[in-house]
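Write out the bound-state structure for xanthosine-5'-monophosphate.
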Amino acid sequence: MVTLLGHRALGDRLKTCFIDNGLMRQDEPRRIQQIFADLGVRVEILDAQDKFFAALRGVTDPEEKRDKGITEVFGKLVRECGAKVLLQGTNYTDVEETVAGIKRQHNILAQLGIDTQEAYGYKVLEPIIQLRKPAVRAMGEALGLPQELYARPPFPGLALAARVIGEVTPERVALLRAATVVVEEELQGCPAFQYMAILHEDKVTGLRDGKRDFGHQIEIRCWDSTDAVTGSPTELPFEKLRTMADRITHEVPGVVSVTYSITPKPPSCIEAV
Ligand code: XMP
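---
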């Protein structure tokens, strides 16, 4: 949304890059590029997958993943682009949770006393920092963004890395991405605020074709919420849960167990990392 806002203010003087960190939904970079091309905004895709995966190698601590794995790599890439100012879509929930010490959202810097000019060599402009999700959506609609973009479930800035418990490797992300496709296809159009698949670190014993199969566990979460500050699990029909479990265990290689989270936020969080 800030891309469109910036484009309205600056026109072609705004340089728009989509940093492909290798952690996005299936086909996301190209899809975003196409949607913006239709709106007359040129988006350049910067392939930085190797850099992010290198920084995430061996990292299992959630806060370290956010800081060393995402924020720092992102900061370096922006500086390498030669940008003097970064337009960033930080919203109010991001700030609140970080300042309260709940979770360091990857895009919060100034509010933690970090001078981006000094640390990264550029200034950060945050035009929607006072807004929560409903207001952000109203603004997206007013700016003429397609509904497909402003009404879709939120997706965190650190992307699928927020949903991999334990080490984030290209293989584990690929597995989670495939499970995410199933969850998003099955729950598309349902009135929940947000839904997702999460890959657990522990493997469990399963049974396939009469043989022991020691495999992965996927957890599905689906949230009722308005602004992500609090949330409760959506009471999905059991048949729908069964369909998702069935599809994931058949379509995603190596998964032998699918669970559904029934814990509200708090004490849970929306994302797992
Ligand atoms: P949590 O997991 O903190 O999520 O209950 C609240 C909302 O914030 C999103 N989220 C993030 N967004 N950078 C972001 O841009 C982050 O580091 C981040 N962590 C969580 C999450 O998707 C949910 O909508």
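---
Residues 41 and 106 are 26 Å apart (CA to CA).
The first strand starts at residue 16 and ends at 20.
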